[in-house]
Every structure is written in structure tokens, then in C-alpha cells.
User: Fold this.
Amino acid sequence: MSSVDVLAVAAHPDDAEVGCGGVLALCARSGARTAIADLTCGELSTQGTPELREREAREAGEILGVGTRVSVGLPDGSVGVGADHRDAVVELIRRFRPRIVLSPYPEDDRHPDHAAAGRLVRDACFFAGVAKRASGEPYRPDRLYHYMLHHLFEPTFVVDVTPVWEQRLAAIEAYRSQFGRAATEQRTAIGGSSFREFLAARATVHGAMIGVPRGEAYYCVGPVGLDGLPGAVSPPPGDGPPVYRANL
Assistant:
């Protein structure tokens, strides 16, 4: 397995599309090597089967331009509970050797697996660099950024995803068992139109924070480097404020 630039880790199929689909699409457009690792198959989902969700995940990844997608095989509903879960993610990181890792926000979320996945990945990013832990050649990613799912947090930075917004939506809607007509037959928190409206409204609010139509929010520990000071030498394009390009 060759290394990737960006590895998005998700508790379930569709989490990466909901939380960081915009950044994944932008990275793929720029030529970056991207991958998604679903920790579980989503076997406890109210709608759909693991086999169906795998097909939907494959389609969604293709829409975003993601190069590789794998399933780690942890049990849905029990992410982070098993003693071997951390080592499984350590081995995942050593396998892909990403420069950047994206994972759910680790502090709180409506679904316990989401926050547990964030904590699991955070710990694994550290232990992946410890030679005597698990198998594989030690490796530690440059940065870990947490994306937003249900729980709202104060972003460390916001990425302009306006150019790929429709692509991002199409990837989410590829999960027809979760977000399509079938999902509305048995009510779930994400199955109705109100959840899609929530995602759009949230992206609008985050976009407004940086002066663009749609934004995707992230949290990280420590400062994020910038390539100079945008707007200091030449005026920003258009009438809005400058959009700061981070060394993500």
C-alpha cells in the first residue's frame, strides 16, 4: 500500500462524506492522494445492510474522487471498546502513512461511536509513532484535524468548500438507504429533509465566518500555518474578505 496525503477516518460509512466531504473533494481536485477508512460497516443502522452500504460507500467515494476506501471491521456500536481497537487504527495509519488525518470531533456527539472514533484516532496517531506498539513500521502523521458531525463546536479554521458543494451533496445522497426515499419510510435523525437542511444551513453559517457561501469547519490542537499573509501584497479577488489558505 502506497502512502497517501490525506486519510479520513470515519466511524461509519457516510460519516466522512457528511463531515469532511468538501475537503476530500478539494484535495482530490488538486491531485492529492486521498483515502477513507470506515471503522465499522454500519451494521446496526436502521436502514440498509452492510453489503448495501458498502456499495453506496464505493459510489460516494468515486463521486468525491477518493483514491482508496477500506473498512477496518470494528463492531458498530462499540467503537473504541475493545483493547485491540487502538492497535487496529495504529496499523491503519502505518499502512497508509498519511501526512494529514481527518477524524470526528472527539469530545461529544449524538452518536457515541463518533466521539469514540475521534478519541481512538487521536490516540492512535500518537501510538503509531511508538516503535514497540503494534505491528508495522512506526510513523506519525504531521497533523490531525477533527471534522464536525452532529455536535457543534467552535472551529479552529473553516475551509471554503463552495466550489465542490454540489459534489459534496451528491456524495452524501449516494447513501440512498440513509438519506433517500427509503430512509424516510422509517424515521431516523438523518433520514428526513430537515437533516439535509441542517447541513446546508451549517455550511452557510461557517461560510459566512470567512466570507464565502459554503464552509466546512475543523478543530485542531495547536496553530495552523499559513502561506504568508493573504491580501497583504495584493487585494483579494472580488468584494469579500480574503480567504486564508492554510498549510493543511
User: Anything to note?
Assistant: The chain has one domain: 6-219. The helical segments are 15-29, 50-64, 85-96, 112-127, 165-173, 176-179, 181-185, 193-210. DSSP finds eight helices and seven strands in the chain. Strands lie at 6-10, 34-38, 68-71, 100-104, 143-147, 157-160, 215-219.
